[in-house]
């Protein structure tokens, strides 16, 4: 049997081509390993991109869900802080006004009333808190403040209690003003 041999030049050329192909393949595999992605996605998917498109869609949805969850957490935290602030302010005002009523002096009543006015301003500011240009307590109208300015509230309350002569009459007028339905001339109409 006769053996066929390559010439030295042909063998050198074949080894060079084989070495270049191996170097190219090694470079591609190293790049795929470093990036974590196949260089030829079409070959990896076998020409069927439905699975890849589904994965990319799922990743996009997960990113949207993450963003929504972060926004909800920030909103919830903001609401919690605002409500805690209002609770503390209401307790402080109630204690101060009760103490002033017990003492019965004009100085104590005036001091408690002044402090209550400042606490009303702070409570309205807390209820008008916003995160990312959205007011937290405004329902679906997030572009508007939830509560009008304290001056407007007090002016409307002054009008609602104008004819009251006793403390009981004032209490009833204030309660009715806050409880009035929308369109009834109460708090909801401010």
Structure described in brief:
By secondary structure, this protein is an all-alpha fold.
Question: How are the SSEs ordered, and which strands pair?
Answer:
Elements: H1 8-35, H2 41-45, H3 50-103, H4 106-127, E1 130-131, E2 134-135, H5 150-160, H6 167-179
Helix pairs in contact: 3-4
Order of helices and strands: HHHHEEHH
Derived from helix and strand composition plus strand pairing, the structural class reads: mainly alpha
Distance linking N and C termini: 109 Å
Please list the strands of the largest sheet in the order they lie side by side. 1-2
Unreliable spans are: none
Strand content: under 5%
Inertia-based shape: rod-shaped
**Helix tally?**
6
Total beta strands: 2
**What is the typical, i.e. mean, pLDDT?**
90
Tell me roughly what share of residues is in helical segments.
over 70%
| Multimerization status | single chain
**Main sheet attributes: strand count, strand direction, barrel closure:** 2 strands, antiparallel
**What's the alpha carbon Rg, rounded to whole Å?**
37 Å
Question: Explain this structure to me?
Answer:
This protein has 190 residues and is mainly alpha-helical. Among the domains are: 88 residues; 43 residues, no CATH class. It is built from six helices and two strands, in the order H-H-H-H-E-E-H-H. Strands 1-2 form a two-stranded antiparallel sheet. A hairpin with a 2-residue loop joins strand 1 and strand 2. Helix 3 runs antiparallel to helix 4. The chain is rod-shaped. The termini are far apart. 5% of the residues are buried.
């Amino acid at each position: 049997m006769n053996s066929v041999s390559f010439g030295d030049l042909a063998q050198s050329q074949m080894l060079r081509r084989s070495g270049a192909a191996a170097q190219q393949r090694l470079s591609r595999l190293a790049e795929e390993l470093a990036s974590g992605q196949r260089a030829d996605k079409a070959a990896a998917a076998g020409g069927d991109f439905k699975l890849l498109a589904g994965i990319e869609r799922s990743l996009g949805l997960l990113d949207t869900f993450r963003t929504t969850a972060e926004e909800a957490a920030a909103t919830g935290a903001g609401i919690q802080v605002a409500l805690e602030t209002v609770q503390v302010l209401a307790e402080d005002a109630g204690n101060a006004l009760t103490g002033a009523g017990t003492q019965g002096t004009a100085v104590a009543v005036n001091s408690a009333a002044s402090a209550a006015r400042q606490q009303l301003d702070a409570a309205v500011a807390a209820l008008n808190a916003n995160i990312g240009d959205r007011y937290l307590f405004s329902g679906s109208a997030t572009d508007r403040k939830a509560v009008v300015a304290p001056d407007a509230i007090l002016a409307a309350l002054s009008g609602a209690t104008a004819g009251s002569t006793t403390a009981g009459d004032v209490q009833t007028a204030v309660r009715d003003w806050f409880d009035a339905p929308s369109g009834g001339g109460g708090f909801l109409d401010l």
